[in-house]
Structure formats: structure tokens, C-alpha cells
């Protein structure tokens, strides 16, 4: 295979350290020693409370890289926090209010060092069709692809990627593996972190395990892999189904009816001729490759995409565009999505985020009752975050933010749960607990689910119909 970065100079097989940590002690991290040599491929595994996200955040902080931590060469850290920071920067630069059109923001191609010189790298990620999109217009999976391409185009020596497979379809995961596998031979050092043991890539020959903020195992993959899981989860998994109680009587009403559905982005047709009908209890799974329109379809249903008014669409028996109140409709919905997560960047505590589910708002702008507060605290207890109720939402790890947003969607037990890759960032224990909880929701006919996912381990038997965009 030809080099992916055409202008990258071979760094040889020198095993000199590109990352070294000696006796680092922080608020929730204690690492005695950890070294990555040039051209080595590492994977670090741990659950959501293991300290992995804190370690990634530390390595991304240039001001912290001194004394106990040394990085040589040109590091690149690709993390959920970094993606969010870029998104918010693009929001601040948005000039749509001053233009007679929507400002797309910085085009993807501007992040890449030399588009022409790195054409093969761009094509290997099937990313060429995204080059003219603004960063805000990219999905979370597409933005991760872009940042990996951009990092390699700027000739990094150490590539650090947090949960690289979250948000990517199966084909993109295979292609990413194929690319990352080749990098050590070209002189790059690679470090990926994962929260699910099934995501540990086969091409990493070095493996480390984080537990309670410590590096408890590290070494050759063959030696460390058998120890995975023996330390146990840091906390009890969230979403205990035995705490669930029904809040309303179900019926068999039609919830969603989309006829000949379509969506456009500018002059580009995203999908067309889509028929979807959901009665209560008809839980629906949506799958398909990145960029096929899964999130767009869900946004049309929730009213968060302007194509909703161009379609023939009934929601809860009301024709969209017939004078209905979008807020009255949203009172009957609970929503979790990467888009909501990215847009929830205003100040507020974890408790306020969960409470905002009652009002379908980003933030709290109205009075809430003591009963609502007690229910929000109960949900925080259910997700194992009672001790973080007053913590700033923005200071939480990505996984804990996602748990708060899931609780926000579930707190009112809505008729329709719209879940777009809700388990992004969650470890195996929390992912499984959430899916078990949703199964109980379905069995008790409390809510009807429409659920988009790339992960086959989330395709549960309670789904009654399946829309597969890959077959359209």
C-alpha cells in the first residue's frame, strides 16, 4: 500500500520515546510510568470512571506537558472535547445573521494541510464529498474523520484518538483500522482509547488498562488482554430497570406517518421515497452508513430540520404545517442525539440539564416544582451521578454528559423516544444497562422508540421494524 501522507518523511524504526509519563499525580489520576516508543501502536482500555477521559484531556493540554509528562515531536489529540471546542468556535464565528443566507462556516478542506497532496488519504476515508461542507454541518463521525485526516496531513508523530469508532459505520471502522494499522510502519506512534472491550483493535500490539485513575496493567497485547475485565467496573452500571414505574396508560394511536419522505441539503438529495409508519409500540431501528440521512430523518420527525414542512408528515395524528405548535408536539417526545449534545453548551449544572427535559429547552428558563426537582435527583441516582448533581455540565466527561442527556430525555417518560446513537461514549456496562432499561420501557409500553445506531450489539429483539438505508 502506498503511503497515505505522500509528503511524510519516514521516521525509521527508532524506539525513542515520543510520550513519557513518570510519577504523575493529579486530582483523579495517578500514573507511575507509561512510555510510548516511536512507531508503537497502543490501546488503552477502561470504563467511564477509569480516568481515561482525564488522561486524554491531560495529554491535550499543552500547558500540562512539563515535568512528569514529556511529549516529543508533533502530537495530535482527537477527542470529544476537542470536537466540541471546534464546534463552539464555529458557532461564535457564525455570520448568518449578517448574510442573506446560512453561513456554512469554515469548510472542511481548510483543516487539511494540502488537499491535493493528500488525495489518497481523503479518498481512503470516502471524505471527498464533505470537503466543501462547513464544520458545523458535519456529523460527529464525519468531524472525527476530518480531524484524523487533518492530523495526518500536518505530519504528526503521535496520533492520540479517543474512542475512534464511536459514530462511525462498519465500513468506516474497517477502513480506519486499515489506515491506522499502516501508520507505525511509516514512523507514526498511535494511541487509541476505548471504553468497550469489543472495540480493542487487533492491530495494537501494546495494551494498557486504566482503573480508578491508575494504569493497573500495561505491556504486550498478548500478556494484558487476558486480564481485561478482572478488575471489575468502577461503579455500578446505570439505569436499573427495577426502579422504573409506568406513568400513563398506553393506546394504539399512530405516532408517525411519513409518505414519500425526502430530504435535501442545498442541491443535494440525501434520500427520497421513504415511507415510515409507526403506531404506539412499533419500535423502529434505523441503520445505514455515515451521511445516508439517518439523523436528518430523525430531525424531520422532531421538527429540527426545515425539510419537515416540505414532507407529507403526520405526528401524533396532526399534519405537520397545519398550525400545530412544535412545543406541544415536543412535550410528547424525548430526544437524545449528537446534535443536541453539541448544542448543549450553555452554563448549567448536571441537575439543571436533567430538569430541562421537562421543558424541552437547552437550559432552565422557568420555575420548576419541588416534585420535578426530586424526580430529577432520582434520575441522577439511577445513572450513578448523585454526587455530581451540582457539578457544571460542561466540566463533566463526555460519557457523563451523555448520561445526563439520556436522563433528560427519559424523565417525563414521553410517548416517543427519539434516540440517535444515544450510547456514544458509554462503556460496556452502561451501554448494556441502558439497552436493558429500554427493553423494560418497551415491555411496559411506556414509550415507543425510534433508534439510530451503527453498532450490531445494539440491535435488540424489541425492535419491531427496521429501516436500513444501506439497502435503499
Give structural notes.
This protein has about 475 residues and is an alpha/beta fold. The chain has 2 domains: about 15-225, 3-Layer(aba) Sandwich (Rossmann fold); about 240-470, Rossmann fold (3-Layer(aba) Sandwich). It has helices at about 50-60, 80-90, 120-125, 140-155, 170-180, 220-225, 295-300, 325-330, 340-345, 350-355, 370-380, 400-410, 430-445; strands spanning about 15-25, 30-35, 40-45, 70, 75-80, 160, 190-195, 205-210, 215-220, 255-265, 270-280, 285, 310-315, 320, 335, 415-420, 450, 465-470. The strands form 4 sheets. A 6-stranded mixed beta sheet has the order 5-6-7-3-8-9, sandwiched between helices. Strands 15-16-17-12-18 form a 5-stranded parallel beta sheet, sandwiched between helices. The chain has a 4-stranded antiparallel beta sheet with strand order 11-10-13-14, with helices on one face. A hairpin with a 2-residue loop joins strand 8 and strand 9. The chain is globular. About 40% of the residues are buried.
